[in-house]
Specification:
The chain is mainly alpha-helical. The chain contains six helices and two strands. Strands 1-2 form a two-stranded antiparallel ribbon. Helix 1 crosses helix 4.
């Protein structure tokens, strides 16, 4: 149990620190949140058109459109601009609470991963590092890449670097920690 707790705490902190660096200092994800000098005009227009929080794909069809309407719509949209909007009526970001929630999530992710690792026999540094990178690849393919297939996100490379560095560092830590503890036992 001690190995699980220490592995999870240090590993969660590793992921958290990497994510902080990735989203702030490194600018890996800035392509997804670019500045436009027209932001005030855009916000003014959107605020008159969007009346509730939600995600909007523009243009799109209303729910319940027939297959024929969908096919005509898709043909008419080919080669034209489109946007995905995440609209919020009020900016109520609580940076402190968001940071705490992010840390808790990272701790849980690593605790789940460590829980799996502790149930596998014959672990060594390389097998733990590979398991960590494969887990990171599963996470990457499941959400960032799958979303990119449909919505062409602009920071896919940032997420890929997050996979390699974050899960790689985690694998190095856990490979050393569990390998060291196992050989001393």
């Amino acid at each position: 149990m001690k190995k699980l707790i220490i592995g999870s705490l240090v590993g969660g902190l590793i992921l958290f620190v990497w994510q902080f660096f990735s989203w702030t200092i490194s600018s890996l994800h800035t392509n997804a949140y670019q500045y436009t000098p027209n932001q005030h005009a855009i916000m003014q227009t959107l605020s008159t058109q969007l009346t509730k929080d939600g995600g909007y794909m523009v243009p799109s069809l209303p729910e319940g459109a027939s297959m024929e309407e969908q096919e005509k719509f898709m043909e008419a949209c080919k080669g034209k601009p489109w946007a995905v909007i995440s609209w919020h009526q009020s900016n109520d970001a609580n940076m402190g609470m968001n940071i705490v929630r992010g840390l808790i999530v990272d701790l849980l992710i690593v605790a789940f991963f460590c829980s799996i690792l502790t149930r596998i026999h014959n672990l060594n540094f390389v097998s733990i590092l590979i398991a960590s990178l494969f887990t990171g690849m599963i996470v990457f393919l499941n959400v960032p890449y799958t979303n990119h297939i449909w919505f062409q996100s602009h920071d896919l490379l940032g997420y890929f670097v997050d996979l390699i560095v974050g899960w790689g560092l985690l694998g190095v830590w856990l490979g050393w920690y569990y390998g060291r503890k196992k050989s001393n036992a």
